[in-house]
Amino acid sequence: MAAAIGRAQFRAVIVAATLLGGLALSGCTVGSPTVQPPTPTPTPSVTITPSISATPAVSSPAPSVASSASFPLLPAGCSQLLPLGTLDRILGFGLLGQVTYLRAAPVLQSGRTGRVTCSYGNPATATVGATPSHATASASASTSTTPLVQVSYITYTDAAIAAARVQATVEADGASGVVTPTTVNGKPADIVIGAKSSELLMSDGARTLVIVMLPAVITPDKAPAALKAIAQAMLLFGRPPSASPTAAGSS
Fold it and tell me: pTM for this structure?
């Protein structure tokens, strides 16, 4: 009997212990749940770059080089080569009559790249207004078709050909006249005084000048000075850009 009571008490103790353990375990698990704070989401870094429209660089086109740049230029009119007012001042009187401009085509076979001829004072209508002797001389020449003054500006492919052409003309025209070597602006030239005309011929680089004057305009003794002055005026055309007008006109 006593043994049965002891076993019953022992089971009661075990049950009580089991109940207490369950309560203890329940006390550990029941309660307010732990709430984890939300992990902050990093804000993306946004870099705002202003949109800049680049203006394309516009470069000026290089100046085109004309195909004729390798050859000397030709005057576009007689006023560019020998203005009538300049001629009148050199002669000391005014020439009346038509001024004509003629531009010839190149003759590349002979090396000639261009030729311009200006004629002053058509003898059929020209009147020289200086002295009666000049007027009489002009009238006596009216039957001729040769202009009173004629100048030619001729260009070649190179200076050697230009010099050779001048030499050939001097030899041909000098056969019926008197040839006198001279200089114009320090450059060699030849003056040919004949019975029908007074003439100056010279080369300057790849260009040549030919000036012809009738005796009705000027006497042979005064022709050399007038011819050289005309040549000096003609050389002003086509001068290098470095030669300023002031420097050219100071002499």
Answer: 0.64
